[in-house]
Amino acid sequence: MKWLVTGVLVFVAQLCICVPYAAADRIRIKDLVEIDGVRGNDLVGYGLVVGLNGTGDGLRNAPFTEEMMSNILERLGVNVTGEQFRPKNVAAVFVTATLPAFARAGGKIDVTVSAIGDAKSLLGGTLIMTPLNAADGQIYAVAQGTIIAGGVSAEGDAATVVKGVPTSGSIPAGGRVEREVDFTFENLSVLRIALREPDFTTAARIEGAINSNFGRRIALMTDPGTVRLNLEASGMASVAHALGRIENIYVEPERKARVVVDQRSGTIVMGEDVRISRVAVAQGNLTLRIQEKPLAVQPNPFSDGQTVVVPRSTAELDEEEGTGLAEISGSTSLSEVIHGLNALGVPPRDMIDILKTIKAAGALHAEFVVR
């Protein structure tokens, strides 16, 4: 690798935490694919949190909280018709959860609670029994318990301090499964597995590894993201036994050359297979300074003149020294670039701009992802 001037492409070494992907790394199939039909289901409910220390909804701004509290009290046998409520320790919330695959009645799931009114904090609150519905409108779980808030807030007469998000929290194992999702493997003869990152080479290797492990042809790649399994030909006692054997087979996945840039944090991550063709890069910073120093001119004594403001401007244009032209030889690997540029100091934003420019020039041979 030939370097004419040091001080340019060090962005790869400074800001990139790169974990090389060894060609011999083997990964279990269960870590690369999703099994068709094995999925969770989203649940949502509308509930009430009580026991807040004066940080609940203002009922004048959130009338739905008062209405729901009245309904709950009436169901408990308390007649509140015509009464006016003005408590500050109650808040209306949305409760969300995910019903895992094969969850059975009586099992516990985690739930998330989020305020929807003007409550300031849910810290220390208790969620009252809340039904959780799925997309079909059926109740699949019921949530209740003490909320673990994700932040804290403190308020004084003239200042307020908020850390984290106190209006949102969670209840570990706070939901109890009441209804099961009907899904069994027993009647399945053909099943599909879907790759999380579709790739022809990886799918072909999964097909070959499964067929080799079973000693017969039970797997067939139908597209880069799907492998079809003929479970009747597996010779196993059940479909579950066959999948338990398949998911622990090791294969060597193929990865695309990819560069990921996070502009907010200035992070750059590059894969080992990224290649940079022969290219020359010049990078420098220009600083333009313009200052206004108006001058007031006074008229002569005892004259009819007026004071006049005369504009005076100064402009300076500076260019940082030490920047120049750097050349990278053809088919340079990431490790070579890091080795050659490890000691230089280019600001993070400049590093990202240089990467974008190299990609636009067609010299960066990788998928470029900007987040």
TrEMBL record:
Q: What does this protein do?
A: Assembles around the rod to form the L-ring and probably protects the motor/basal body from shearing forces during rotation.
Keywords per UniProt: Bacterial flagellum, Periplasm, Signal
Gene responsible for this protein: flgI
What molecular function does GO assign, one term?
Answer: structural molecule activity
A Pfam family of the record is FlgI
* Assembly and oligomerization: The basal body constitutes a major portion of the flagellar organelle and consists of four rings (L,P,S, and M) mounted on a central rod.
Taxonomy of origin reads: Bacteria, Pseudomonadati, Pseudomonadota, Alphaproteobacteria, Rhodobacterales
| UniProt GO cellular component terms | bacterial-type flagellum basal body, distal rod, P ring; outer membrane-bounded periplasmic space
Name a single GO biological process.
bacterial-type flagellum-dependent cell motility
What protein name applies here? Answer: Flagellar P-ring protein
Cellular compartment(s) = Bacterial flagellum basal body
Origin species: Shimia thalassica
Note the InterPro entries from the entry: Flag_FlgI (IPR001782)
